[in-house]
Amino acid sequence: MSDAKATHLEHFQDLEQQAHAARLGIWIFLASELLLFAGLFALYGAYRAHYPAAFGWGVDHNVRALGTLNTAILICSSYSVAKSVHMLRRGRPRFAAGLVAFTLACGCAFLVIKGVEYATHFREGVFPGGHGSFFLGQPQGLKVFYTLYFLMTGLHGIHVVVGMGLLVWLLSRILRGQLAVPHTHPLDIGAVYWHLIDVVWIFLWPIFYLTPGTF
Amino acid sequence: MRAISERATLLTLLALLGLTALSFALSYVHLGALNIPVAIAIAAVKATLVVTVFMELAVEKFTVKVSLIMGFVFAALLIGLMVADVVTRADAPLLPPPPS
Predict the structure, then answer these.
(1) Residues B13 and B37 in one domain
(2) What ipTM describes this predicted complex?
């Protein structure tokens, strides 16, 4: 659809119904994503209950400041993409495009910081699956902790990359004038996906950075 | 569709950053057994704010709300029952694999 003023697709009654169908679709997709991550969180919960000391030690070994910085970055990026949705609806596409670009920059910053963390782990000999010199003589629980850490933050990182790809595509559509009032709901969809990435990190942050010690 | 106000969006940002700072500060306080529940509770409040305001669930139609709420209910059941199983068994069910 190249015309921003284009009306709804023919199998919908109006644009409002089309937008609702699109939003319902992304929410059902997000509910299935939730179950994907929930399986991993359940695994984390079970193993943490089984190896409380090793998990507490592993959390303490992660750099809390870097995890916190990444949390703040993702929250700001969530706000900027929410604001861009408002701006596009108000008929200010250039402002909206700027905010999407800022969100992309936040995504890049997040990945760079995560990359620095991974590089530090690899230098220390911490690899997924309990491989690496770091684990010599260490308890089994620590291997499980770092395997789950790499799996969950890695899966989240893949979501960040996919979300950024989606935002680049939406940004190009805004700049080409293809997304404008009243045809603005594709940006809603991209924004909702980006917020999901934020929500997942909101839970990853406390379980991998904030809760040292046993319970 | 009704819309969330831009003022509410901004206030949510401030609340989220405030809760992040609170959670970070509390992580240095020794709360013992409450350490994890408190951190998860703050995260749950933050996630609720993001979902209702940023993701505009508060003004979505009922069908959308149901799809998400059921997802959360099943996720909570999955995690809760699995952790309860490990905690309450006399012999822990998660035995490590034999060394290779």
Answers:
(1) yes
(2) 0.89
